[in-house]
Design brief:
mainly alpha
């Protein structure tokens, strides 16, 4: 493959359960030279996330397991966070409340700094929207949303954190987070808040 082929391969990779993924991995070193190692790792993560989404859509545990195995092999630094999130999302989608709560606990214990703020906030909102009657789920949601807000350090994440706190019934902390969102919006020159 020449550089043009590698660029096409890089852009075409979307799923981890494909021949393109194997070809991508076979040419990983050359792709890292053409792009960068972090960019290639992000592409691997995105492909595995799409395969995970597909496993949830079709309620197909084998696809989830394939995505988890490929993350473990090709991006081990995020393996634990990815695997916990995969189990969490799959447990929720399949209606397994006990499995969801076990995965949620593991997800929080694994260390939230390994996941992207957008993903963290998505998990927190999943908890408040679907497990509003479960105090443990709401406690975890607050912890996760706080980690997302701190990592992102953007007004929209602090606003999301305030919403999660409010949903959990912690109005005082929600007001504090909302005020932090307002201060960040003003300092970052964001409008629309």
């Amino acid at each position: 493959l020449d550089d043009t082929d590698l660029r096409i391969l890089y852009q075409a990779l979307t799923e981890a359960d494909s021949r393109l993924f194997r070809l991508f991995i076979d040419n990983r070193k050359r792709l890292e030279n053409l792009y960068s190692a972090p960019e290639v790792r992000v592409k691997i993560l995105e492909a595995c996330e799409i395969t995970l989404d597909k496993s949830i859509e079709y309620d197909f545990a084998e696809l989830r397991d394939e995505a988890k195995a490929k993350i473990a092999q090709h991006y081990p630094a995020v393996k634990e966070a990815f695997n916990n999130r995969a189990d969490l999302e799959f447990g929720h989608a399949s209606g397994d409340t006990n499995g969801f709560m076990k995965a949620l606990k593991k997800y929080c214990k694994a260390g939230l700094e390994h996941d992207r703020p957008e993903t963290l906030m998505s998990v927190a909102k999943l908890c408040t929207e679907n497990y509003a009657d479960d105090k443990k789920a709401l406690t975890y949601a607050c912890e996760i949303a706080e980690a997302a807000a701190i990592q992102a350090n953007r007004y929209d994440f602090y606003l999301g954190y305030a919403e999660v706190l409010s949903a959990a019934g912690n109005r005082k902390a929600a007001l504090k987070a909302a005020n932090e969102a307002m201060a960040l919006a003003e300092s970052q020159g964001s409008s629309g808040i």
